[in-house]
Amino acid sequence: MFPDLKGRGLFVFSDPGGAKPVLAFITMLKTLTAYKIVSDRTYSFFDDFGLDVERYKEGDELHVFENFKPDFLFTGTSYTSKIELQFVKEAKRNGVVSYSFIDHYTKFEERFLLNDVYVFPDNICVIDEKARKIGLETELPKDRFLVSGNFYHQWLRNWKPNIDKEAFFRYQNIPIGNKLLVYAPDPLSNVGGVEKYGTDEARVFKDIKYCLDELDDKSYTLFIKMHPNQKREILEAVTPLNDLKYIIADDKVDCNSLLFYSDMVIGIFSSILIESVVMNKKVLRCLIGYTNTDPLESNNIGIVVRSIDEMKHEFNSLFS
User: Fold this and answer.
1) CATH for 264
2) How many structural domains does the chain have?
3) pLDDT in tens, 244-300
4) Is the dihedral of CA 95, 97, 103, 106 positive or negative?
């Protein structure tokens, strides 16, 4: 059973997949007497939660515990940034109980590697029983798993934009009446790419563009909501972006509003696809050529297409 955390809470995150659940969790905690939130990144969605997030400065983990004196540490987990693990190490040195949240079903072990050494919190929080079973098959300590659910999904179910669709379209220069498509690329090219997975974000984008180009109806706008670790040039090699048809969603575009007003959200296994299902949006998962384990196979997330013909069929259905 997930514990009822109380007292003085210290919260740390980097990647957005961890940031959103951690921020949502804080809004749900009614027994906090004080909180401190630290991150090495800044996101536009911070404003959605109305919480103060402090920018991480190198060495913060060394003095925050002494100055703030937290009763517990709760962190996200990230692939590229290691500030969460630095704070977990410092929590151990100070005798403070620590919790880390895994927001997906992939790369469990890599999330806890700091300079090639494992750093484990006292508790590892996962989104469901499936994630816990995945964790039990890894090198992670088997007695530390807690099934917490995804706090962000709980928060998202009741979320509504503060701007109507017409105003949102006008603000984003989307022609009224256009279908709004959102592509959430998984940056597979950073972690093995085509050789490991049989496809990558550029190949998926190329297939999407090919199928859209085949449509008789050209009244669509495709926004690309890039992962923070995504290399833009990988996608720009497929087609020029920001040309009124294929647009990079910059930091000023509210992701939740983008999903809320979308007609279809497209990707491989990005957490944005799961969020879109929570918001009752149509989701298309493109597994053309994909050869690796599908982490969402048993989660009933969207429509899976494994061929160009299947993708064409789904686009034609959307525009019919």
Assistant:
1) 3.40.50.12580
2) 2
3) 789 998 878 888 999 999 999 999 999 899 999 999 999 999 999 999 989 888 888
4) positive
